[in-house]
Design goal:
By secondary structure, this protein is an alpha/beta fold. 34% of the residues lie in helices and 16% in strands. Strands 1, 2, 3, 4, 5 and 6 form a six-stranded parallel beta sheet that branches. α5 links the parallel β4 and β5. α1 packs across α7. The longest helix has 21 residues.
Length: 207
């Protein structure tokens, strides 16, 4: 990845790997577009024990996101498993710490999108994506889902919503990301990359 090229930040939290798999498909879609890169980042788990401290570098997967990753992005894709129709606490905790960027209008006019994974077909995917959208709107971002011009959105019998890519993992996480879910996440990555490039001229705007 070139330091001088624009990038889309793909920021996710994944407990068992399903959301991470979707994130990797979005990365592939982003990187299929000329002139823009993907930056894959995760967030540490939040412990109920205040003394618990996560290592600075995770044992596997993407490295932890910083505010600078968010500050410098041309676009944002955020992903989380659902927690009672909402994003998981670790991702919410990270977003709760972005008030400095909000005060400065750093993310105004930048495109954003979301993706999620649930255990069951009606496990709160759309509610999760809609609630993930709320802080992005407060930042002045331009939200983009998955349009119905994508054939998989009509054909899917598992994950996939107009609000963003999704995956049905099964009660025990036994289902891998299927072809349609993978195609929709890839298409979502392509779309956010194209929008990031197209909206770059307005990214200097403030609130």
């Amino acid at each position: 990845m070139s330091d001088s090229r624009p990038y889309v930040l793909v920021l996710y939290y994944s407990r068992f790997g399903a959301t991470r798999s979707l994130a990797e498909q979005l990365v592939a879609g982003i990187e299929s577009q000329a002139g823009i890169d993907a930056r894959l980042r995760t967030v540490p788990a939040v412990s109920a024990v205040s003394e618990a401290v996560e290592p600075e570098i995770p044992a596997e997967g993407a490295i932890y996101a910083t505010l600078d990753d968010l500050r410098g992005c041309a676009g944002l894709a955020i992903g989380s498993p659902t927690r009672f129709g909402n994003m998981a606490a670790p991702l919410k905790y990270f977003l709760d710490g972005t008030s400095e960027l909000w005060l400065n209008g750093t993310l105004v006019n930048k495109p954003a999108t979301g993706f999620t994974s649930t255990a069951s077909l009606h496990g709160g995917q759309e509610a999760t994506l809609l609630t993930m959208l709320v802080p992005l709107l407060h930042h002045g971002m331009v939200y983009a889902g998955v349009p119905y011009s994508e054939p998989g959105l009509v054909a899917t019998t598992s994950g996939g919503t107009p609000y963003g890519a999704s995956h049905v993992a099964g009660a025990r996480g036994e289902r891998s990301v299927d072809d349609t879910e993978r195609e929709l996440a890839y298409a979502q990555g392509k779309r956010i990359a194209r929008l990031a490039l197209a909206l770059q001229t307005t990214q200097g705007s403030t609130r």
